[in-house]
Amino acid sequence: SRLKRKAHQEIAVEVGASGEVNLSRDQNEPWTVFAHKKPQKGWTVYNPRTMRPPPLSGDTKSVKLMSWNVNGLRALLKLEGFSALQLAQREDFDVLCLQETKLQEKDVEGIKQSLLEGYENSFWTCSASKLGYSGTAIISRVEPLSVTYGLGVSDHDGEGRLVTVEFDTYYLLNAYVPNSGDGLKRLSYRVTEWDPSLSSYMKELEKSKPVILTGDLNCAHEEIDIYNPAGNRRSAGFTDEERQSFETNFLSKGFVDTFREQHPGVVGYTYWGYRHGARKTNRGWRLDYFLVSKSIFGKVHDSYILPDVTGSDHCPIGLVLKI
Amino acid sequence: SRLKRKAHQEIAVEVGASGEVNLSRDQNEPWTVFAHKKPQKGWTVYNPRTMRPPPLSGDTKSVKLMSWNVNGLRALLKLEGFSALQLAQREDFDVLCLQETKLQEKDVEGIKQSLLEGYENSFWTCSASKLGYSGTAIISRVEPLSVTYGLGVSDHDGEGRLVTVEFDTYYLLNAYVPNSGDGLKRLSYRVTEWDPSLSSYMKELEKSKPVILTGDLNCAHEEIDIYNPAGNRRSAGFTDEERQSFETNFLSKGFVDTFREQHPGVVGYTYWGYRHGARKTNRGWRLDYFLVSKSIFGKVHDSYILPDVTGSDHCPIGLVLKI
DNA sequence: CTTGATACG
DNA sequence: CGTAGCAAG
Fold it and tell me: Please, which domain of life does this record's source organism belong to (chains A, B) (predicted)?
């Protein structure tokens, strides 16, 4: 049955004294924020209240991975109420992957200290070529078996865009895929060099263990993954080239887009440009993913989005994995 | 008699709904903000409430000139309550000279429109060499006889640091003198090229009419003009070279420092660096002046400072001239 | 529209 | 510390 929709409806977000985030909407009401003038038949809008599976029974062990493009970690931490700490308290994640930390090497040590109790393992990349640009981190409760920065063998590692940790039963890769840029200046680099290199690297790792790739993959895969497909055919992140590359290098190589697999026909954005108040009207993109090797897709309990968490132009996403 | 002093006393400034500025202090209390640990004997701190002469009698005609380094006019105008408009309402000036407007040529027309009713004559300089840098303006009720931008004949005019207007009985020059910069990089240019050129230009004009120079002259002339003379002997604005240049090029050439002449032994700062809350503790400098040709010093009724006007790291100064 | 680096004060 | 411009998204 179709949801009742009201275009441009705003969600009021209330931040409590201790930083907790409360949606002011009735918990039972369906998620009705929808900016499409003519929503496609059969599409519904992802509602993290109603579209998440019930918690696993107590005797099923699970791990919760989260990913968030924070668009500048120092700025985010200044907004107390939205700090990673609050997210930890709410979500109780095991691993948090950050992109666009925009840290310099010299900031890392200080940030590490001030971060979360109980997450003593953290691994940071910074852009060597441009200060305050790009940068990723993996923050984990348990100590990984190994850590790798960058693609290792290639010449794509000057911008601190990738960090890999190895756990018992899988590799976890956290990537901030290069934006193709204004005028699509970097489109060619992105689709002919970066994407294939990342893909090969993943296939190489997969020989020993299943692989999970998360992060800002800077591509809205299909029309359902962007608010205005027609108007963005030549926009970075929705070109045919990038979408094709996403399929060729990742999906066709046996990596599963977990959110889409669990939620066919569901609109779930993870990014809204700061310009023109795009977030209020849900004019967004789905750019952030958890892709997993087919061999462990069966372990995916929940692939979800937290669109109400602000503080960045992206929102966090999560993956609950049975182990 | 010595004033009672309390170091680091703070003045609370209240801004009313219509933008008026109210000091919260008792009107009868002397001005006691004083940051010197050991105030020099005989120095008192300028108090604009008690140290200004009584208004001129109704039959003496006068003109009020004001000067303010606004440190970015667009930023200032955003702070509604402290706009030049409020200053106009309080002070009823005839001419307002601004420095460090930091406007680009393309901003000027728009700003001109949005400015003050009754001040239809305004003349703007912008830095051609560096966008958003330097820049001056003279805003006047009456139309001047002529306007000149820069030093005219020299090669010092790329930065929009000088504008001259000619009135019936005097020339008014508004200058933003080059800061000698970190490491005193520009000290030599400043004292061997800019100051002498400005001085010659003034002497040239003086052949036909008395001259008034106002603006940010970027020099604290004597020890009394700076909160920590000993610690700033090699700071831009208080080097021996700049102080000597100030004397040689301006005072010795017959231009009178009107504030100092009227208030010997009085500490009156016009600038407080933003760093370390220098303004709260009155750790300031007197960098802004009205200098006048000796021939019209007799016409000076009041040379004053408005230290309670915020919105910039400098405060406005004023000159009331009998005409 | 927002972050962050850099210049300048 | 704060105002600018700029690059990047």
Answer: Eukaryota
Q: Return d(Cα B148, Cα B77) in angstroms, integer.
A: 26
User: Which of helix, strand or coil describes residue B139?
Assistant: strand
The residue lying closest to nucleotide C2, measuring its CA against C1', is A274
Residue nearest to nucleotide C4 (CA to C1'): A132
Secondary structure (3-state) at B95? strand
> CB under 8 Å to A86, separation ≥6 — which residues?
A19, A20, A21
Q: Which of B171, B163, B172, B178 is nearest to B126 (CA)?
A: B163
pLDDT tens for A301-319 read: 999 999 999 889 999 999 9
Helix, strand, coil share (%) of chain A residues, nearest 5: 25, 25, 50
C-beta atoms surrounding A199 within 10 Å? 18
| Distance of C1' in C2 from CA in A102, Å | 13
Please say if the pLDDT value at position A201 is more than 60.
Answer: yes
Confidence band of B24 (pLDDT split at 50, 70, 90)? very low
* B201 assigned to active site: no
Nearest to B266 by CA among B301, B303, B291: B303
Query: Does residue A19 register a pLDDT over 60?
Result: no
Among B176, B201, B271, B289, the active-site one is B176
Q: What is the pLDDT of residue A80?
A: 61
Pairing of β A171-176 and β A211-216? parallel
pTM: 0.81
First to last CA, chain B: 35
Q: How far is the CA of B125 from the C1' of C2 (A)?
A: 31
Interatomic CA–C1' length for residue A286 and nucleotide D3, angstroms: 37
For residues A194 and A289, what is the distance between their CA atoms, to the nearest angstrom?
17
Instruction: Write out pLDDT tens, residues A222-236.
Output: 999 999 999 999 999
Backbone torsions φ then ψ of A215, nearest 5 degrees: 130, -170
Residue B10 has pLDDT above 70, yes or no: no
Find how far residue A212's CA is from the centre of its chain: 12
Instruction: Give the integer Cα–Cα distance in Å for A286 and A222.
Output: 9
Residue ranges near strand D (C-beta within 7 Å): A 130, 133, 178-179, 181-182, 186, 273-275; B 71-76, 102, 104, 131-132, 274-277
Residue nearest D3 (alpha carbon to C1'): B72
Q: Are B64 and B318 in contact (CB under 8 A)?
A: yes
How many contiguous H segments (helices) and E segments (strands) does chain A have? 8, 18
